[in-house]
């Protein structure tokens, strides 16, 4: 069961709510609805789930409804209809006291403007959420110091916010949210006010912290590159509706509609697509059961001059050229005796931009390995060039030593 479940969530600002919703169903634009009813559709019929340990990014342009949506999750904005479940509790039906408890213990929000108290030290700022929960001084100090340590800020604990850079202030805001030990972090444009270099550092910090704490993070941004960099999944919004939910790779390679396609067309895909996205099936020979005659027959049939050699478990043993197979047959050698064991291996998660130099200097395809170090495919030069030029179909090169499938 997902820890956060959003179901049919809708928010219409204004009085003529029902008329506005009917116009939405008729396909009217936000501007048309505003002109005819005076109501503004902030979010319409949004549903999604977020899992433990996931960074779920909600993104869109200004006016898309993303900031309204994140405020509906912790009911800073009251929904017109729909439900938000945290575990099995429906936030939309909670009393004020229940909601206050959820905000104090389960959901924390990190804003763009940091929200630090200027007259409190870094440690005192990090303790604040625990303080209002009534946690004792010794315990809250211990938790706050641990959060600051995780964020690389412990040595600054006695300084004041004005003594820190903007990026460090944002780290304190993040540490404060983590110190509260909430299950869920809502981050609304948390890094957008930072300059590009600090912003990238903060993205790195967030990813590193998430490795340690494994929270549910719902992150709002208007920056597609930021969304692609940090999001496990992305929800792309327009006019209060979700256009598509998926991984960055899914959204780039299989856009749901023209809006998504146009929105993502300027993205550098080489920094998002991985070896798994562009790999081809590997033509192989099993060194435990097959010999040089089988290898040569397979090469003739597939019109290639090299195979990758594996065992029954798909462990990679090396590469076998036609010349080596002929030598093995002529001199009655085992395939294992003539293999070239210097095959370049890459992880299935390797980015295309990182693969380019490897494939450029490699006389053979790159062997793509899964998390168990088993062969799952190959990357050829043409596929990398195609991905980097956004022409992913029909670009594989027929090179003498390449394995084409």
From TrEMBL:
Catalyzed reactions: a quaternary ammonium(out) + ATP + H2O = a quaternary ammonium(in) + ADP + phosphate + H(+)
GO terms of molecular function: ATP binding
Domain of life, per lineage: Bacteria
Extent of the signal sequence: none
SMART domains in the cross-refs: AAA (SM00382)
Chief localisation class: membrane
Alphabetic keyword roster: Amino-acid transport, ATP-binding, CBS domain, Cell inner membrane, Cell membrane, Membrane, Nucleotide-binding, Transport
Keyword Membrane carried by entry: yes
Enzyme category, top tier: translocase
Domain (ABC transporter) ranges: 4-264
Membrane topology: Peripheral membrane protein
Location in or out of the cell: Cell inner membrane
NCBIfam families recorded: proV
Quaternary structure and partners: The complex is probably composed of two ATP-binding proteins, two transmembrane proteins and a solute-binding protein.
Protein family: Belongs to the ABC transporter superfamily.
Protein name: Quaternary amine transport ATP-binding protein
């Amino acid at each position: 069961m997902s820890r956060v479940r959003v179901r049919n969530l809708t928010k219409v600002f204004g009085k003529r709510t029902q008329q506005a919703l009917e116009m939405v169903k008729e396909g009217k634009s936000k501007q048309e609805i505003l002109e005819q009813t005076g109501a503004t559709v902030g979010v319409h019929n949004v549903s999604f789930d977020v899992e433990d340990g996931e960074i779920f990014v909600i993104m869109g342009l200004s006016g898309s409804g993303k900031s309204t949506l994140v405020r509906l999750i912790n009911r800073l904005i009251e929904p017109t209809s729909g439900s938000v479940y945290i575990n099995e509790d429906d936030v939309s039906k909670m009393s004020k006291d229940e909601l206050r408890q959820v905000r104090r213990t389960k959901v924390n929000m990190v804003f763009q403007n940091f929200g630090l108290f200027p007259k409190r030290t870094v440690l005192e700022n990090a303790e604040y959420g625990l303080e209002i929960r009534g946690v004792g001084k010794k315990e809250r100090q211990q938790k706050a110091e641990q959060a600051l340590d995780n964020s690389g800020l412990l040595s600054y604990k006695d300084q004041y916010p004005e003594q820190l850079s903007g990026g460090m202030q944002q780290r304190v805001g993040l540490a404060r949210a983590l110190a509260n030990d909430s299950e869920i972090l809502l981050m609304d444009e948390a890094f957008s006010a930072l300059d590009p270099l600090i912003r990238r550092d903060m993205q790195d910090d967030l990813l590193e912290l998430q490795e340690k704490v494994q929270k549910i993070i719902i992150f709002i941004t208007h920056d597609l590159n930021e969304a692609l960099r940090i999001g496990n999944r992305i929800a792309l919004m327009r006019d209060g509706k979700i256009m598509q939910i998926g991984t960055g790779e899914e959204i780039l390679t299989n856009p749901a509609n023209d809006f998504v396609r146009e929105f993502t067309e300027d993205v550098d895909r080489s920094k998002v697509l991985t070896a798994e996205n562009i790999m081809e099936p590997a033509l192989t020979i099993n060194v435990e059961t097959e010999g040089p005659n089988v290898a040569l027959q397979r090469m003739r049939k597939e019109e290639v001059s090299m195979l990758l050699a594996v065992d029954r478990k798909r462990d990679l043993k090396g590469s076998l050229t036609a010349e080596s197979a002929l030598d093995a047959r002529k001199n009655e050698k085992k395939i294992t005796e003539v293999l070239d064991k210097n095959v370049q291996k890459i992880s299935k998660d390797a980015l295309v931009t990182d693969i380019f130099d490897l494939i450029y200097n490699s006389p053979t395809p790159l062997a793509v390995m899964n998390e168990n170090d088993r062969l799952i495919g190959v990357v050829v030069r043409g596929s990398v060039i195609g991905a980097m030029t956004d022409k992913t179909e029909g670009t594989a090169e027929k090179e003498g030593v390449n394995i084409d499938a």
